[in-house]
Amino acid sequence: MSHSTLHTERLGERIAKLAHPGDVVALWGELGAGKTVLARGIAQGLGLDPSDVTSPTFVILREHAGGRLPLFHLDLYRLRAGDLGSTGWEECLEGGGLTVIEWPDRAGDDLPADRLDVRLEHIADTKRRVVIDATGPVSRARIEELAADAFGA
């Protein structure tokens, strides 16, 4: 449970701290659920300026360099079926950075099979339910690291 935007950002920082080149984080949730807030926390955790991270809704892809890893921030909200191939997102997945995808459902079957799925659900004005799932062996290792980090192991 996240009780504030600060909690959501801190979760993003923890995810970034454990990220490896090539990791993918898919952010699921309705408008206003906190996806971009989490992305800002991830930027902060990579040593990037979080104020540079805004919802790239009209741009689809923004690359942020200068941190521990490059951050590739995609927002597929306005993507039409069949347009994914023209975004250059495949290069992000192989670019040696951390790829964060908002509205991943728009990618359909093209979504990477091994990724960290973070589902944010609006509960109240500042309260969100956050569920993190692994979809493969690499993302499962990240969840184990995240759990160990949370409990000081």
Put simply, the count of helices is: 4
Average pLDDT, rounded to a whole number, is 89
Share in β-strands: 15-25%
Q: What is the H/E order?
A: HEHEEHEEEH
N-C termini distance: 21 Å
Describe this structure in words.
With 153 residues, this protein is an alpha/beta fold. Helix content is 29%, strand content 22%. It has four helices and six strands. The chain has helices at residues 5-18, 35-45, 89-93, 137-150; strands at residues 24-28, 61-64, 71-75, 98-102, 116-122, 128-134. The chain has a six-stranded mixed sheet with strand order 2-3-4-1-5-6. It is globular. It starts with a helix and ends with a helix. The relative contact order is 0.22.
List the helices and strands and how they pair.
Blueprint: H1 5-18, E1 24-28, H2 35-45, E2 61-64, E3 71-75, H3 89-93, E4 98-102, E5 116-122, E6 128-134, H4 137-150
Parallel strand pairs: 1-4, 1-5, 3-4
Antiparallel strand pairs: 2-3, 5-6
Helix pairs in contact: 1-2
Provide a brief overview of the structure:
The chain is α/β, with parallel strands linked by helices and 153 residues long. It has four helices and six strands. Strands 2-3-4-1-5-6 form a six-stranded mixed β-sheet.
